[in-house]
Design goal:
The chain is of the alpha+beta class. Helices cover about 55% and strands about 15% of the residues. β1 and β2 form a beta hairpin. α3 packs across α4 and α3 (about 35-45) packs across α5 (about 70-85).
Length: about 100
C-alpha cells in the first residue's frame, strides 16, 4: 500500500520559498513543491497568478475569520480540498467553489 507514497519523486516534497506581497507587506512563504504545483493549477483555473491567488485566499480568510493562525497549513488544506472536489477526473474549479 505505501509503495505508492514512498516512491514519490523527492522533488515533490522538497520545500521551496517564494516572496510575495500580502496587504502591502513583502513576505516569504515556504511550501513543498507539490503544493506550489496545486496552487498554480487552482490559480490558472481562476485566471490569476499563484501570487494573486495566495493574496486573495489571505484576504478572504481574514474577512471570514478575522485572523489566520497558520497560513501554511491553510494553504495545504485548500489544496487538498481542491483535489477532493475532483472525483474520478480532472475538473476546473473556481475559487468561489472552493469556499463552500
Amino acid at each position: 500500500m505505501c509503495e505508492l507514497y514512498v516512491k514519490a519523486d523527492p522533488i515533490l516534497y522538497e520545500s521551496r520559498a517564494r516572496s510575495l506581497r500580502i496587504r502591502g507587506v513583502v513576505t516569504t512563504l515556504r511550501l513543498e513543491n507539490q503544493f506550489w504545483d496545486i496552487l498554480r493549477e487552482i490559480a490558472e483555473a481562476d485566471g490569476m497568478t499563484t501570487n494573486q491567488l495566495i493574496g486573495k485566499l489571505y484576504e478572504e480568510v481574514m474577512d471570514y475569520r478575522g485572523e489566520v493562525l497558520n497560513f501554511a497549513s491553510f494553504r495545504r488544506v485548500s489544496c487538498t480540498r481542491f483535489l477532493a472536489q475532483r472525483p474520478g477526473k480532472v475538473r476546473e474549479l473556481s475559487l468561489a467553489q472552493l469556499a463552500r
